Amino acid sequence: MIAYIIRRLLYTIPIIFGVLLVTFILFNVVSGDVSDQIAGKAASAETIKEIRAEYGWDKPLFLSWDSQFINHLKNCLTFQFGRSWSDRELIITKIAQGALPSLSLTVPMFIGEVAISISLALIVAFFRGTIIDIMSVFICVVLMSVPFLSFILFGQYFLAFKWGLFPVYFWPDLPLPQYVALPVLIGIIAGLGGNLRFYRTVMLDELRNDYVRTAFAKGLSSRSVLFRHVLKNAMIPIITQVILAIPFLFLGSLLLERFFGIPGLGYLMIDAIGARDFQVINAMTFIGAILFVVFNLITDICYSIVDPRVSFE
Amino acid sequence: MNGRVTLKIFFFFLLLIIIIFLVLLFGKKLNSPAKADPNDTVLYSTHGAKVRGLDPGDIGDVTSSIIASQMIECLYQYHYLKRPYQIIPCLAENMPTVSEDGLVYTIKIKKGVLFTDDKCFKDDKGRELKAGDFVFAWKRIADIKYISKNWWIFDNKITGLDEFRQYSKTCKTSADVDYNTPVEGLQTPDDWTLVIKLRRPWPQIVYMLAHLPTAPMAKEAVDYYRKDIINHPVGTGPYKLNRWHKGSYIEMVKNPTFRDEFYPSEGEANDATNGILADAGKKLPLTNRLVTVLIQEDPPQWFLFLQGKIDVSGIPKDNFSEAIDLRRQLTPEMRARNIKLLTFRDPSTYWFGFNMEDEVLGKNLPLRMALSCAVDRDKYVELFTNNRSEAAYGFIPPLMSCYNANIKNISQTSYNVQKARKLVKEAEQIYGSKLPRLVLSMPGTDIVFRQQGDFLKRCFSDAGLDVEMDYMDWPTFQNKIKTKSAQIFALGWVGDIPDAENFLQLFYSKNVSPGSNNFNYSNPEFDQIYEKAYVMSDGAERDALYKKAEEVVVKDCPAIFLTHGVAFILTHDWAMNIKPNAFAYGTSKYRRVDEAKKAAYKELLRKLK
Known about the structure:
The structure holds 2 protein chains of 2 kinds.
Chain A: H1 2-30, H2 35-39, H3 45-54, H4 68-77, H5 91-126, H6 131-145, H7 148-162, H8 176-207, H9 210-217, H10 222-233, H11 235-250, H12 254-260, H13 265-275, H14 278-306
Chain B: H1 3-31, E1 42-47, H2 62-69, E2 76-78, E3 87-89, E4 97-98, E5 104-108, H3 131-142, H4 161-170, E6 186-190, E7 193-197, H5 205-208, H6 219-225, E8 239-245, E9 249-254, E10 289-294, H7 298-306, E11 312-313, H8 320-323, H9 332-336, E12 340-354, H10 365-374, H11 377-385, E13 389-391, H12 407-411, H13 417-431, E14 438-442, H14 447-462, E15 467-471, H15 474-482, E16 488-494, H16 501-504, H17 524-534, H18 540-556, E17 559-571, E18 575-576, E19 592-593, H19 595-608
Parallel strand pairs in B: 1-10, 14-15, 14-16
Antiparallel strand pairs in B: 2-3, 4-5, 5-7, 6-7, 8-9, 9-10, 11-17, 12-16, 12-17, 13-17, 18-19
Helix pairs in contact in B: 10-13, 17-18
């Protein structure tokens, strides 16, 4: 297993290099120069030249030991992303400050979403073909069809503004659980449709297997069949879905953070996109890629824990 | 299905529902107002953009300027109540003494003014402001290694400062720049006297000395915080920074070492009857804390205002009819909430500019006039601004003293489809064949820009013109303008100072792109008038030159001048002393909250429910 992990870690080197190359080409070659934008409304050519020197944009793109690409590699691999050009703040500080608010929103949202979806999926799978199952599919389709923004507007208008059950917007005097409660609730409900349908399909696939009928024929209780056999065998797709969603928790929720004023990484990202702040976008993309690769590896290791048939050879 | 399992799942869901219910209850309980200090008065406001940084030397956006201006002061400021806008001393003892040739300004600094207490100073106690702090701040803006956005203020204006900038270029790093290098035009004969020597007369300097980037900087603060000075404003103002949650919330508290400054006792004729002079002579600031909530989306901002959590608000486009009726008055619902409406002209002009270096447009006056005559400005104002603007035919906004009420007739570009069609024929003769398709660059891609595009396309097509819309993001648009590659572009200008020179410089030939003259307009007659007026002091003679210069421009038609802005502001009745000011930012020190009325609103909300 250790050899497998080392091998997988070695595989990540070309993947990370590829990510760095693609982001570099996208943000430094394709998207053009932003130095005149940094310089402000009445900038002289000399100021623009100085900005290019400050950010190292006057250096060759590739063919030099001091090229922009080599510096890009060095900076990313040492997590020295420099300063955002839109507000001159250290990017790593911005990310560190935004991580907690984002996680306080996305983690409860994620746990709630997974717990409710899997539990409901078990129920509707058992009641398959009945009115409960049909209704659940109908509701899921409705939930999936409604745009995410509508959930936000509806929740903010009725639950916060009209009925006063939650704060409308971030207010630092309030404890954290309170101002994230409504966005978490909205996130759970909005994501329920898709998740429930996915887990229901997973459960139904398992319930149709011969070993389930055999287990019932042998006289095992429904509890035993459900939780010891069906759920365990359904774990592979569940683990894939759940673990691969974890990296995205660190990246926050763009719309929820913006509408509820949660100063997280989603907010940071959307602001950076709006301001064309490529340094910030690049740092977030790089961190996202690292997390994705790491959690992919964790997923593979978890497969072997839940399913002994999976081999590392 | 086994009954026990069903029961377990049922209980699991019951538990979840209970948790959600508790969260709801928890939310409701905490949503009620916290116990407040009865002596604590707080002003709540909102802005739609994030604060990019609080270092005055590099400030370039309105939101950051508004926040920083509550903590950082300049030599001069605008009188809060008097109109037309009048400059009065702030950190200066009095107005500057100007030499006869208009080249030397001598300014006395108030004694005993302290920087706010901060750990950058010895024993954490703010020291006294000195004239040298202005010299340091302005050298810093000149220092090219600092890369300030605000060098345009001093560029080619102060004797020796451009040479200091040249010297800074020779330094390898920012740390190598020696700020003790003398600048001939910035002298401090003593700690409270500042002498400024100019290269040529620059009467607008007084307005610039009320502009935030010219505020003094304590060298200790810059040395201590270095690049993080953006997060640590150290000023002499009435407030100091207390809490800042980047992107969503910023709180300032009263600066205990703020100098003695008092609420004005004179204003406009109706200020006394409006109750705005009730606090005359009171020591400033009138409120203990300032809280600014930064909200980029309209719905939460509107909800917070109606809940009474924000004192003053603009009116989101989608909520306009909820607030304002067809007679431009408050709706009964707003009046029932004791909300007040304030309207004022802002110093803005918006246009569709023509690139005068473009082969098709630049040499074809009838074509430019045809495009201008084709646009139904009144319909545009109604459709896209909720009538919150006025049709424009020139670039000087109506609130300027030199505004020409006859500019519509002079420009001869009022909406007239028949005239536009005739002009198109003339334009085709000049061009030599059928006109090619023109491209209008729009600085946005959202639905409103596309609706505007559809409207304009129809206007142009009615006049027989083929104009294609090119929608793009703001940075791409800006890049297109700076590189002279846009043919027609939607843009505007909001005046920084109450002097129309601020608008005239947009047409000066030496300012062509990447400078501020995005039209790449060049007319020697205009340049001559501009250069003559530029060095003149405020007065009727200069106003006449400004009007003449505008006439020259509108006759050349380098743009479809579209609208001038009119701002609509809603305030709750507890927000006192609110008088809109189009140029000053640091006005929160004059504002006050009537806590009794604020408490009554909570009761009113219960009744309205």
